[in-house]
Amino acid sequence: MIGMENSRKKFNKLTYFVVLFFSLIIGYRPFEFGSDYQNYINYYYGMDILEPGYLVLNKIYLFFGFPAEFFIFSLALLSGVLFVTGLNRYKLDFEYKLLSHLIFWILLMSAHFRSGIALSIFIYLGESIVSAILCSSLFHFSFVGAFIPFLFFKLINHYKLIYILLILLIVFVIRNILYDFSLEVASFIFDYLGRERNLLALSGAIDNVHENRNLWYFENVKIYICIYYIFIALFFIENNLLSLFVFIPCFSYIAYGYDAYMSEKIFLSTYPLLAIGISGMKSGFLKRVTIFFMFCLVGKDLLARFEIIELRDE
């Protein structure tokens, strides 16, 4: 037992070297890694963004004449330290830490930089959820969307969401079967609100991701996996915080499914919470199945990331 604890401490210290390594790569990009790097260089030198936390730090670094690369590196380093420090509190096994780091560095920090910063703050402050959501939202507004699943979880957690999930599934089926009627209703509502892109979101087409922003179609396997994870969170994770960590990304993906950008953004931003949350399951067959699903999801998204890089290079 003492030996395991010492090994865990050594591994935890080693992860800080991983943080420094990836921070240097993200800040200075000695080779192609992720995307949006040039956009963040442009943001630094004059393209203002909305999130006040990021904007204030940007202005401070610019005032003192630091180059953009150093700004990105130092924020990546700080975010990595917050991420690892928060992660170490949960005493995760190796596979869950591996998943968390893969998602954080390769899917978030390399391409969705502000989301990664926000996520690191969220995990660091995770035991105080409201503070975590508010502070994270200063660096990426997608974390405001975590309020809805959080409040929903707190409101009806005692009923284990059985009836709500059944209602979601019924709505899912009705939305697809009664397609024409839903399209007419959507046309009226979204024309009134001036949100034309959401009318396209309810078109039901799945052949062109640029014309379709709707996630609610039968072929979307991730919807079903998210529903599976919600059941896992509510029935097989006894720690309330870890259960919430699984619930937030999965319920967000379903609840915001009318708009693919919003849904995917919130899910991706809170993705590592899944790996932390499912670590709270009791050991056994179901835990192994769940971690297998998690590796499959991450692997799929990693492959998609490399495909995007290859297409951009062409």
What are the SSEs and their pairings?
Layout (H helix, E strand, L loop, with lengths): L1 H27 L8 H8 L7 H12 L4 H21 L5 H16 L3 H12 L4 H9 L9 H10 L5 H16 L1 H15 L2 H6 L19 H15 L4 H16 L4 H10 L1 H8 L6 H29 L1
Helix pairs in contact: 1-4, 4-6, 5-6, 5-15, 5-16, 6-7, 8-13, 12-13, 13-14, 13-15
Give the overall pLDDT as a whole number: 77
User: How many helices does DSSP assign?
Assistant: 16
**Class of secondary structure makeup:** mainly alpha
Radius of gyration: 20 Å
Secondary-structure element pattern, one letter each = HHHHHHHHHHHHHHHH
- What is the count of β-strands? 0
The N- to C-terminal Cα distance equals 53 Å
The low-pLDDT segments are: 189-212, 308-314
Task: Name the beta content range.
Answer: under 5%
Oligomer: single chain
Number of domains: 2
The biggest sheet amounts to:
none
Roughly what percent helix?
over 70%
Described by the principal axes of the CA atoms, the overall outline is globular
Description:
Helix content is 73%, strand content 0%. With 314 residues, it is mainly α. The N and C termini lie far apart (53 Å). α1 packs antiparallel against α4, α4 runs parallel beside α6 and α5 packs parallel to α16. The chain is globular and about 55 Å long.
In short:
The protein contains 16 helices and no strands.
Based on the model shown, name its key terms.
16 helices; 314 residues; mainly alpha; disordered C terminus
